[in-house]
Amino acid sequence: MHNIIFLKDLDGKALDPYVRLNEAQLFHAMKPGMFIAESPKVIERALRAGYHPASLLMEEKTFERDLDDLDHEMAANQTTVLGQTPIYVVKSDMLRQLAGAGYNLLRGALSAMYRVQRPDLTSFLATMPTNHPRIAVLESVVNPANVGAIMRSAAALRIDGVVITSDSADPLYRRASRVSMGTVFQVPWTYVDAKIWRAEGIDLLHHLGYKTAAMALRHNTISIDDPELDRADKLAIILGSEGPGLNEKTISQSDFTIRIPMAPEVDSLNVAAASALAFWELGNQKSK
């Protein structure tokens, strides 16, 4: 039996995560913070990955369908049931009032979930496969849609883990996790403080045996299909933001700068599209 609670207003403190706290505030709400998962598919994948829900919020006219979808996904994957987790149901006109006030409240079912503690970089890399690991590093990728798309490509193309600098968009922001189609809960990932990354990140990767490949255009840039990249026992593929690109120190300290072969009239791709091509060529999908 579900714990379904029909609400007449949105005043209760239990609804703060949905209607009164922005995503940055949720991040710092309590250790290790909270986030909003959106849609039955994303919620189910988060549950399957071990995240714990504080509550769910659903629109009255669609809650039976959304709850059926969620129950179906959970049953198909033998995921732990919601038990007595509060499921708040609200009327559509209440949501329209909030939309007029500037809140983008509901696109399908929502769930306020507790974050999990992320390991530091050294501990995280110790969990990577011992055979031919391939990881991605996102340096200052600030667009949540790009982060979500990169996570989806990483999951599809067998990248073993993703490291994200703290000045990048949060993979658990609603837009990022929605674009990722919930794969943000499938791919192992962690944060690294941006200052620590710039000071010693490349050195640490080298110390742990990783060759580093920065996606950048330089005089010595090699193609992503260069055999030398495949010969690297451990490889970290480093991607930067679309405007400034990678930090100059990151590029100069990396073992390789790499590029995607393309028409001479075009010098770059969107970082999400570039990640998909690089992961296809450099990930482990071809050997599995």
Helix and strand string, N-terminal first? EHHEHEHEHEHEHEHEHEEHEHEH
Major β-sheet profile: 7 strands, parallel
Measured between the Cα atoms of the first and last residue, the distance is 42 Å
Low-confidence stretches: none
The CATH superfamily of the largest domain is identified as: SPOUT methyltransferase, trefoil knot domain
| CATH class assignment of the largest domain | Alpha Beta
* CATH topology (level 3) name of the largest domain: Alpha/beta knot
The number of helical elements comes to: 12
Instruction: Give the radius of gyration.
Output: 21 Å
Instruction: Give average pLDDT, whole number.
Output: 87
Principal-axis shape: elongated
CATH architecture descriptor of the largest domain: 3-Layer(aba) Sandwich
> How many β-strand runs?
12
**What's the domain count?**
2
Strand arrangement in the largest pleated sheet: 8-7-6-11-9-12-10
Which secondary-structure class do the elements indicate?
A: alpha/beta
InterPro entries: Alpha/beta_knot_MTases, Ribosomal_eL30-like_sf, rRNA_Methyltransferase, SpoU_MeTrfase, tRNA_m1G_MTases_N
Domain tRNA/rRNA methyltransferase SpoU type: 135-279
GO molecular function: methyltransferase activity
Protein name: RNA methyltransferase
